[in-house]
Amino acid sequence: MTRRTPWGALLPPLVPAILVIGVLEALVRGDVVPAFLVPAPSQIARALVDEGPSLYPPLAQTVKASLLGFLIAAVVGVTAAIALASSRRVQQAIYPYAVFSQTIPIVSIAPLLVIWFGWDRTALASAVIVSIFPVVANTLAGLRSTDPALVDLFRLYGASSGATLFRLRLPAALPQIFTGLRVAGGLAVIGAVVGEFITGQGIGGAIGVAQQRQRVDIIFAGVLLASLLGLALFGFINLAAWRSLRSWHVSESRH
Amino acid sequence: MKTIRIIGAAFVAVLMVVLAGCGGDTPAPSGARKLTLQLNWKAEPEFGPFYAAEVNGTFRAEGLEVELRQGGSGAPTSDLVATKQVPFAVVSADQIVVARSMGKKIVGIFAVYQKDPMCIITHKARGLGSLDAAVKAPGTLAIERGMPFATWIEKTIGFGPAKIVPSPYGDLKYLQSDPNYAFQGFATSEPIAARKLGLDVDVFLVADAGFDSYQTVLAVHEDLLKDDPELVKRMTRAVTKGWEDYMKNPEPVNVVMGRMNPTMDAATFTAVTQAQIPHVISDGTRTRGPGTMSLERWTQLTDQMLKSGVVRTSVDPASCFRDPVEILKGS
Predict the structure, then answer these.
(1) pLDDT in 10s for each residue of chain B, 331 residues
(2) Core-most of A228, B55, B89, B277, by most CB within 10 Å?
(3) Residues B225 and B317 grouped into a single domain
(4) CA-nearest residue of chain A to B104?
(5) Residues B43 and B175 in one domain
(6) What ipTM score was computed for the predicted complex, to two decimals?
């Protein structure tokens, strides 16, 4: 087990970031690229400070919609996967529709979500709809790939089906569940922002206003904040995965 | 394997469309100059003068082969001109002012809508008597906050307790489902569609409240005026002729536009064509000519936009436009 300093781990991803920021700044300042097409990183930074009132209160709304959407997707998704895994027949009946739900282009139904759920819950609904499928699919895959020898062992000792589920199959499926949650986290943010384009709330709404104002710097600042939110969620899920898997699963134990 | 082939074919098709769209300004085999005029909405009577010039062969008579390309609600037409991806595009006067404040060198050369049809539409049953009352009433107000007219309303009239949401862009289902819903639209379009659905609506023009921007403005890059004044002149002449033809006889042109825009039936086309006359005909068009624009109007607009904080730096109103009447006289 090699112990690396935090700096050693941070340096590699920082190099391309610094490079890209430097090149962009130079291109815009040198008038190679007009600032109205691609804003200089310094302009985006200034927008993050100067346009605070039009960015941070909306960001709070996006945080709320995407986090809540993610949590609902996680709970409902895992529960649904358990139900699907319980019976081959149920799975055959329902799973195709779960796949079908994933192919819905959310942008095209987002205006309807307003009618169904109201202006204030559209972003949340959109976040849930786009992020639930990866949770269901990955959890189901995990539940179905329990080591048959261990299932036999549980049966041999007369374990109830509940015990088999909670002591064996769910824990064994955790790595896949976390894979699903990682994907769902990013999608929840995207889903929330798409919904917000229709409702005008949150970062999506702020980006919409900036588009009308032809303010590319604010658009990029908004996109940056949405991405950071997605990253934070990803980091949080990774932390949870590490805490729950490090003691036994190879994917998290080598650090 | 079959799927892959279909995807491949689809990809090639998309590529061809994209490549075809790239032909900005190349000589056609016939010798006519091939170019694109980017519209900012679907084929509708507001673009009648352009389609008339196409249908009646006026573009061709000027040696132009023009592709009239339809746009959507988010079509960044001013940026297409500013980056010279298309030589001609339809924008609004207030977009030109915002664009110029950011160093985009675009110039308006022909204004179809002399009076801004931008309006707030409400259910008649609410009995709101004015624009002031309409934007200050409780309920839901659908208005694009970033648009200059909306900022002007916010600064000079002020919003009330209504929930502010983005424009539905012609989608009337919110109006149908919510009795306290008010929304922005064009007086020439949404009210007609709403009445067709049996909804009784009031229409409050933003222009009547004081903010009157030219709409459906043909724009070019400043450089084109310098580098190819002849092309600009030919286009202006064709559009002016198209305007006159369309005002005299709109129906054949409406039939062609109707084929491209099936969301509007023939009766709606006729109704819209009637409704837009007070927006297209002005004292200016009567005394000077079709599409004319005045320095007074542009000065008022740039002043209002600076005062309400839409633009942060002052924009020279004279730099924003060339009066088509002057272009046609031009040396």
Answers:
(1) 444 444 444 444 444 444 444 444 454 455 789 999 999 999 999 999 999 999 999 999 999 999 999 987 666 899 999 999 999 999 999 999 999 999 999 999 999 999 999 999 999 999 999 999 999 999 999 999 999 999 999 999 999 999 999 988 888 999 999 999 999 999 999 999 999 999 999 999 999 999 999 999 999 999 999 999 999 999 999 999 999 999 999 999 999 999 999 888 999 999 999 999 999 999 999 999 999 999 999 999 999 999 999 999 999 999 999 999 999 997 5
(2) B89
(3) yes
(4) A36
(5) no
(6) 0.72
Residues B177 and B231 occupy one common structural domain: no
- At B11, which CATH number? 3.40.190.10
Asked if residue A28 belongs to a domain, the reply is no
Residues B97, B236 share a domain: yes
The residue ranges of DSSP E strands in chain B, in sequence order, are 25-27, 33-38, 64-69, 88-91, 106-113, 118-123, 140-142, 163-165, 181-186, 201-205, 215-221
DSSP element (H, E) containing B10: helix B2-22
Task: Compare all CA atoms of chain B with the CA of A204 and give the residue at the minimum distance.
Answer: B166
Residue A130 has φ and ψ, to the nearest 5°, of: -80, -20
CA–CA distance, B184 with B202 (Å, rounded to integer): 12
> Are the Cβ atoms of B166 and A115 closer than 8 angstroms?
no
Q: Report how many domains make up chain A.
A: 1
Residue span of the structural domain in which A202 resides: 53-253
Q: Which tokens go with B300?
A: 């008022």
Residue A130 lies in a domain: yes
Q: Are residues B62 and B130 in the same domain?
A: no
3-state secondary structure of B186: strand
Helix axis angle for A202-212 and A170-199, nearest 10°, is 40
Quick one: tokens of B264? 């509007």
End-of-domain residue from the set B209, B234, B267: B209
Domain assignment present for A218: yes
> What is the nearest CA distance from B225 to chain A, expressed in angstroms?
21
SS3 B117: coil
**Chain A: nearest CA to B102, how far in angstroms?**
7
Distance of CA B71 to the CA centre of its chain: 10
Q: Could you give the number of structural domains in chain B?
A: 2
Q: Of all residues in chain A, what percent are helix, strand and coil, respectively (each to 5)? A: 85, 0, 15
Mode of pairing for the β-strands spanning B163-165 and B140-142: parallel
In sequence order, what are the beta bridge partners of B141?
A: B164, B182
Which residues span the domain enclosing B203?
118-209
Query: Does residue A200 sit at the B interface (CB-CB below 8 Å)?
Result: yes
Q: Are B237 and B115 in contact (CB under 8 A)?
A: no
Angle at A113 between CA A111 and CA A114, to 5 degrees: 70
Residue A153 CB neighbour total at 10 angstroms: 13
For B163, which residue in chain A has the nearest alpha carbon?
A119
On whether both B217 and B83 belong to a single domain, the answer is yes
CATH number at residue A156: 1.10.3720.10
Residue B93 shares a structural domain with residue B36: yes
How far is B252 from chain A, CA to nearest CA, in Å? 34
